[in-house]
Amino acid sequence: MNKRKKIIIAVSFLILLLAGYGIYKLTLGNHDSKVIQITIQNEGDVIYDKQVETNAATLGELLEKMKEQKEILLESEQSTYGMYITGMGVDELYVQDEASGKYWTYDSENNAQCVKNSFCDAADVLVIEDKDHFTFTLEAYE
C-alpha cells in the first residue's frame, strides 16, 4: 500500500471518529442537563434557595443525589403514592410532626406536570425539566 492510501485511510478514520463523537454528544452528552431551582422553607423561613445542575429525570432522583452529595438533609419513606418526604434541611433536619399537624409539602408554579394536574405528583415519579422551580415547605396544617 502506498503512502497516499495510508493517509487517506487515516484521515477517513479520523473523520468517522469525530462524527461518531459529535453524534454521541448530541444524543447522550449533556443533552439531559438541566438547572432546577430548589427552595426549602421551615414555617416561612427560607433555609435553602439554590439552583442545581442535574441530569436526574425525576425530582426524587434529584433529591436523593443532593442528599448523597451532602447538599441537603433528607428523610423519606415509600408510601402507597410514592416517595413521601418526612424530613428536610441543610444544617439541621426539620421533621414533620403529626401531633402538631406539621407536614412537608412541595409545589411548583412552572413544572409542566404540576401545572397540568393542579398538584405535584410524588417526587419519585415527577418528571423535571430545565428551569423548573420547586418550593418545599414545612408548615402546620389543620
Keywords:
single chain; about 140 residues; alpha+beta; 7 strands; elongated
Write a brief structural summary.
By secondary structure, the protein is α+β, with helices and mostly antiparallel strands. It has three helices and seven strands. It is elongated.
Q: What do these coordinates show?
A:
This protein is α+β, with helices and mostly antiparallel strands. The protein has helices at residues 3-27, 59-68, 112-117, and strands at residues 34-42, 45-54, 73-79, 82-89, 93-95, 102-107, 133-140. A four-stranded mixed beta sheet has the order 2-1-7-6, with no helix packed on it. A three-stranded antiparallel beta sheet has the order 3-4-5, with helices on one face. The longest helix is centred in the N-terminal third of the chain and has 25 residues, at 3-27. It is elongated. It starts with a helix and ends with a strand.
Note the total helix count. Answer: 3
The overall pLDDT, averaged over residues, is 87
User: What percent of residues are in strands?
Assistant: 35-45%
**What share of the residues lie within helices?**
25-40%
Pattern of helices and strands: HEEHEEEEHE
Shape by Cα distribution: elongated
Structural class: alpha+beta
The poorly predicted ranges are: 24-31
- How would you sum up the major sheet? 4 strands, mixed
Gap from first CA to last CA: 85 Å
Count of DSSP strands: 7
Question: Strands of the largest sheet, in order across it?
Answer: 2-1-7-6
- Cα Rg: 22 Å
